[in-house]
Please model this.
Amino acid sequence: MKTRFVVILCVFNAAVLAAGYLYFSDYWGSQVEQDRQTAKVELEAWKAKAVEPTHPPSPVVIVQTNAFNWSQLESADYRQYIANLRAIGCPEVTLKDIIMTDVMRLYAQRRGQYEQNGREFKFWETDEKRTLKQNQLEEREKQLALINKELPAVLRELLGINYDREMRKYFVDTDEDNRRLSFLSEDKRARLLALRDQFEGKREFITYGLTNGPASPGDIEKLKAVDQEQDEALSGLLSPQEKEEYQLTMSTTADHLRKELIGFNPSETEFRDLFRRQQAIDAAYAYEDMSDAAVRAAKAADEQSMMSEVKAQLGPERAAALDKAKDPDYQSASLLTERFDLPAETSQTIVDMRQAAEDQKQQLLANKDISPERLEVALKAIEAETEKAARETLGDQAYAQYSQSAGWIRNLGGN
Model:
């Protein structure tokens, strides 16, 4: 409706202009031909505007495609495959998952080749027909051992990862590394863990070809050089305090001490002192042949001397607590005490109970006047009473676990 009105108005204006032109033609008679032509052009332009509807320009259609096929990335060469994934910005975590899954599937297929004896499946044949022959079993064990050694090395080379540590993340990821290293900034944690993986890989490269025997002198020198390089890298990344905290938190020496000192409940100061002493001994024997009885004896002597110095520094009460922590039975009772939230003195009660029962047994065995029949009854009575007392001390649930390793109770009834 609006367009129609505009058209009519324009036509009307054009008519008026034409009439005006005729009316004033005599007046404008002196106008040059050029002016008349200009007016005519303007009139025609107005007419064209009035009768021709305007249309927007046709849009220019641009066709762009992001069609993608996985075959553009995949490659039989895993290094190229990884490079392709990184080139398209694939996140490292996703890249790792893709490559690990693919590699492990290939090794699973290799394992599967040694799990069947090659017979065609026939539904009427019973299971013994598909049982592996002895030579096949031997070959399977040989090949599986090779695969179990090769797979971690391949993943380390491709992705720079520790196979066992990565596999734990797929089942129970406790985020243990970040939890232990919470005293560091996020950036330092990431760089530190990258260093750890890097130097683990260097050691594995050296030790991959070793058998169960000792490393050669040349390999030992290479491993020592890696240790030195790692120590320098740590010193470049961490302050002296952070470096010691890292070693107290992550080193095998510290982990070993935490197991050895169960039940001792060391203070921070006591643990730091024991760690420094034990670390020095471990470093001194790191590349010694521990299958050599003389080497083992020398290390044991050094540790004994170290513990004597520690106990002299601790004082009588704490020294006695340290000695108790060397008793496997005391450690076992300490673990149960903590797990079942029992009174703190429970561990010592169990140890005292064992000592008293074994003393009674020795007294009976030393009595030459008692008959074998009476001796057997008396020993069984000691066993029963001790079991009852231990159960009451620990509770049924804790005792059920303790008794699995507490052979000393069952031994009370025999002579």
